[in-house]
């Protein structure tokens, strides 16, 4: 029997996670009142005929009752002999606010007030669950398919959990520095393929461009030093409890040099079993879009 308690911040993806687990064969129950947690656990242990072997239970501030009663409820579940795991879905406050504004939904603790106040109160009420979570997933930068991949690793394939997710992000300085960056590196000192006619329409994802950039000794030295520094920082971030790290690499337009170095750093990092890593090229196609708009005008 595998019993997973899915919890976390409203808007961080709990409903999506439950749907993913349901598709994976889990018997899912969402928004169960806290006073019923113990009775539900007893049913799973005593009333289940054996047909249900995987259960996911959604618990959050919508569950009613005093969230401080969760600690007592979980202790009662332990006394039934049922082992459980806690999956906590989180996201940055700015991301949660944006999601609520986009969907025009009301935060369950905000009422007619500001969403930020509801988020602050929710973090306070969920503090115990986060501190005792077996898995913390930060969905701030995760696409639905990436969230599914992480859940499949943990709850379907039983692979080791990587609590730190690293995003290697390329960008163009002329479009602004990504606001969620933890580390920002400027590679505008490297030779620019933009000034080579045959390379200008290509990107760092194309071999001629990446070869041009990496054939420069400064690029190779920079990559070695960058990979060495990031590798040094990662275990310290993990020890601190950080679960999301965004490493941003920028050039002028975010199409050639930054894409090449981001890809190279990603290749250095992706083999580790200590953390997860993903790559994103934020501005790789923006020059083409701007050119097309100018032609239309």
Structure explained in plain terms:
It is a single chain. This protein is of the alpha/beta class. The protein has 2 domains: 2-155, Rossmann fold, CATH 3.40.50; 165-296, no CATH class. It has 11 helices and 9 strands. The chain has helices at residues 14-23, 37-47, 70-79, 93-103, 115-125, 127-131, 144-155, 207-214, 217-240, 257-269, 286-296, and strands spanning 2-8, 27-29, 54-58, 84-90, 135-138, 165-172, 183-186, 244-251, 276-281. The protein has a 5-stranded parallel sheet with strand order 2-3-1-4-5, with helices on one face. A 4-stranded parallel sheet has the order 7-8-6-9, covered by helices on one side. Helix 2 (37-47) packs parallel to helix 3 (70-79) and helix 9 (217-240) crosses helix 10 (257-269). The longest helix has 24 residues, at 217-240. One of its GO terms (molecular function) is ATP binding. GTP binds at residues 60-63.
């Amino acid at each position: 029997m595998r019993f997973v308690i899915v919890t976390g911040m409203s808007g961080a993806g709990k409903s999506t996670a439950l749907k993913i687990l349901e598709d994976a064969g889990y018997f899912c129950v969402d928004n169960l009142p806290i006073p019923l947690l113990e009775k539900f656990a007893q049913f799973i242990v005593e009333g289940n005929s054996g047909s249900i072997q995987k259960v996911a239970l959604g618990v959050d501030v919508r569950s009613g009752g005093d969230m401080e009663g969760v600690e007592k409820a979980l202790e009662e579940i332990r006394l039934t002999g049922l082992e459980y795991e806690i999956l906590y879905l989180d996201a940055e406050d700015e991301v949660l606010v944006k999601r609520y504004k986009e969907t025009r939904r009301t935060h369950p603790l905000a009422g007619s007030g500001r969403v930020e106040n509801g988020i602050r109160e929710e973090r306070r009420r969920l503090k115990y669950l986060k501190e005792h979570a077996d898995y913390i997933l930060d969905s701030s930068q995760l696409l639905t398919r990436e969230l599914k991949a992480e859940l499949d690793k943990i709850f379907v394939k039983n692979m080791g959990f990587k609590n730190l997710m690293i995003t290697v992000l390329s960008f163009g300085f002329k479009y602004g520095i990504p606001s969620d960056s933890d580390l920002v590196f400027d590679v505008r000192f490297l030779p620019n393929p933009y000034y080579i006619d045959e390379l200008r329409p290509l990107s760092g994802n194309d071999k001629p461009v990446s070869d041009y950039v990496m054939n420069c000794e400064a690029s190779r030295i920079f990559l070695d030093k960058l990979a060495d520094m990031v590798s040094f920082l990662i275990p310290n971030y993990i020890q601190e409890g950080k679960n999301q790290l965004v490493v941003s690499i920028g050039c002028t337009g975010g199409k050639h040099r930054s894409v090449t170095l981001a890809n190279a750093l990603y290749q250095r990092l992706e083999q580790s079993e200590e953390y997860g890593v993903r790559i994103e090229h934020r501005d790789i196609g923006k020059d083409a879009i701007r050119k097309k708009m100018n032609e239309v005008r």
